Amino acid sequence: MRTPSDGRSLARLAGLLADPTRAGICLALLDGQAWTAGELATATGVARSTASEHLDQLVAGGLLAEERQGRHRYLRLASPAAAQLVESLAVQAGPGTAPRSLRQVTASEALARGRTCYDHLAGRLGVAVLDAMADRDLVDTRRGLAVTEPGERWLHDLGVDIPALREGKRPLARACLDWTERRPHLAGAVGAGLCRQLLANGWVERGAGRSVRVTDAGHRALHRLLGLTRADLGNAAR
User: How far apart are CA 117 and CA 191, in angstroms?
Assistant: First the structure.
């Protein structure tokens, strides 16, 4: 039987994210993809040898998982729970350093419009989708967050396999506080399934890093399915 965490083990976990490079690595991996050690070194602006040292600590601490293919080493967040921890800490930390260049401003604005939070939609796009689902009684937000029977039918018609999602270990649906909007977006197995389906349909496509954008076809589909307009999405479309 596992015993509750004590102060020492909690401090060890907190120490993993106390370094800006390790924290930056975890934030980069919130896109839900697997990155090479070299890519993470470039993203955080450190030498590859330095990045490797940090990655070893994050893997040993259970925040990252690694996979080797030939001479390449791929890293990803170890679990949805690890992603939830990083996102929650980002919310508590508040705004970062103000962007100083046009490139940084553009990237920051793209993340605020729409991005992935590990494997579900976030930013103004993610919040708008959850709000629209709640307005149509597809989800119930009165006591936590739950998918309604009409919501299950709606998701099934969209191509999201609810019975398969119920077989997993993740909560079916949960609210995830968005660190830019300070309001919840849809997470859990349903949030991940919906994100996968929108990407598969070509309604949402990946941009740089974690950012995503709504395609023209996606704008039409989201308007038809949820009544969302470009104004509702905060210009999250191309």
Answer: 10
